[in-house]
Amino acid sequence: MEWKRKSETEIKQRVFGALKGNVNYRDGSILGIPGTQLDSKVFSEEISFVRESPYLFTLVQNPNHIGCHTLGDSESYFEGTQGLEREVIRICAENILCAAPHSVDGYIASGGTEANLQAIWIYRNYFMYEHGASLSEIAIVCSEDSHYSMQKAGNMFQVRCVLLPVEEKTRKIDRLAAEEKLSMLKQAGVKCLIVVSNMMTTMFGSIDDADLYAELMQNHGFEFRIHIDAAYGGFYAPLIDESNTIDFRHPNIHSFTMDAHKLLQAPYGTGIFLIRKGWMKYAQTDAASYVAGADCTISGSRSGANAIAIWLIFSAYGRHEWFEKCSTLERRASWLAKELDKRKISYYRSPLSNIITLEASEVPDDLVTPFGLVPDDHHRPSWLKIVVMEHVTIEKLEFFLEELDSKRFLEVSDLQLI
Ligand SMILES: *Cc1c(COP(=O)(O)O)cnc(C)c1O
Asked: For the chain, how are helix, strand and coil distributed in percent, rounded to 5?
């Protein structure tokens, strides 16, 4: 699937054309759908900038993208805009994550949390249905730097969630400690593991070694499936790092979470769930008989405007310009890393990442709040992170360093006075 930049005219034609392919509540004869466009008293489509904006106009038309539209049968009322959601899924799976054409199913979820829950739900059911596993024979395994949605999933789906320790400085899985935990799980009767491997963790931007996971699981004789949590890194790492091998070419990887509402700067509500074809069925709820094509997603009704928002961003950039945008963030982060090196300040940065995580002891307390540095633990922080997003310019980083220099200088001269 090509990912090309489109002209503004073409973009408008595609989105307004897609909306024409949806049900028209106002002029049509539809009686039975429990939905309609947004309330016209509050969200008027007569305002000219709403009419001109593909995103705002879609928002007011209020298409419902309930269900998963890569599977074939879907609600026909919103076919037009669902087609654009399918394009979004194909660009993510095929252009960014190197899947073969039409080999991946997916949908726009409410966020990375939901996409992770969806993956874990599917694999849990798979292990129950296909391997006859009981809940106590299934566990989620991930690194201690993983997002808390894995523990949430463990609680919701009633399976154990085991965190593997990482090495303090490198944030890599501590192999010996991992072996020990896996042996304990084996002894406790666990047989099937849902492995969640990160492509850029929230706090460190670190990327887990999916091959190490596969090797460990095989050595210990577990049944396993690997899900990649690329909520943070999905729109960054595969593009910026040519040597990236964490994608659908990897035989052990079956599914991905990506978040368009982080680096891609789409509105909140744009998590992306992707999984190889043949797996969505494990989340099929046959009771959803009033939805054509049945529903196999966690969310149920969801706004089609979210899919359009992502489609619009893809179309405004195209792959090459998106890469250029990522490179700018990468270069700013490299600039900051170099400045920190000059000052001998310790930090963690995964190669090419736009997240720089400072050792908290290096940063005077009174700089944390004004610069919005995010701690790993709000009570006893050992790390503070800087995330180089679009608004984090070199000028702002320079200002931070100036403040840091003057405070650190004061601390040193205080000591000398004593
Ligand atoms: C942000 C994030 C999530 C959760 O995403 P939400 O969109 O907030 O639900 C999951 N995993 C990682 C690595 C994240 O950075």
From this structure: 45, 15, 40
pLDDT digits (tens, 9 = 90+) for 345-402: 999 999 999 999 999 999 999 999 999 999 999 899 999 999 999 999 999 999 999 9
Residue nearest to atom 6 of ligand 1 (CA): 112
* Ligand 1: nearest atom to the Cα of 114: 9
Common-topology check for domains 112-230 and 318-417:
no
Tell me how far CA of residue 151 lies from CA of 95, 156, 163, in angstroms: 31, 9, 9
Whether ligand 1 lies within 6 angstroms of the CB of 201 is answered as yes
Hey, whose CA ends up nearest to atom 3 of ligand 1?
A: 112
So what's the pLDDT on residue 178? 97
Question: How close is the Cα of 146 to the center of ligand 1, in Å?
Answer: 9
Of residues 60, 64, 77, 66, the one with CA closest to residue 107: 66
Of 3.80.30.20, 3.40.50.2300, 3.40.640.10, 1.25.40.10, the CATH number of 112-230 is 3.40.640.10
Is the CB of 146 inside a 6 Å radius of any atom of ligand 1? no
- Superfamily of the domain at 318-417: Aspartate Aminotransferase, domain 1 (3.90.1150.10)
Q: Is 233 in the pocket of ligand 1 (CB under 6 A)?
A: no
Radius of gyration of the chain (CA): 23
pLDDT at 409 exceeding the cut of 80:
no
In the chain, where the domains are located: 1-104+234-317, 112-230, 318-417
Expressed in angstroms and rounded, the spacing between residue 187 Cα and the centre of ligand 1 is: 32
Phi/psi of residue 139, nearest 5 degrees = -145, 155
Residue with tokens 């004789």: 221
- Given ligand 1 and candidates 147, 197, 255, 387, which is best to mutate, with the most ligand atoms within 8 Å of its CB? 147
User: Is the Cβ atom of 205 under 6 angstroms away from ligand 1?
Assistant: no
Reported as a pLDDT band with limits 50, 70 and 90, residue 416 is low
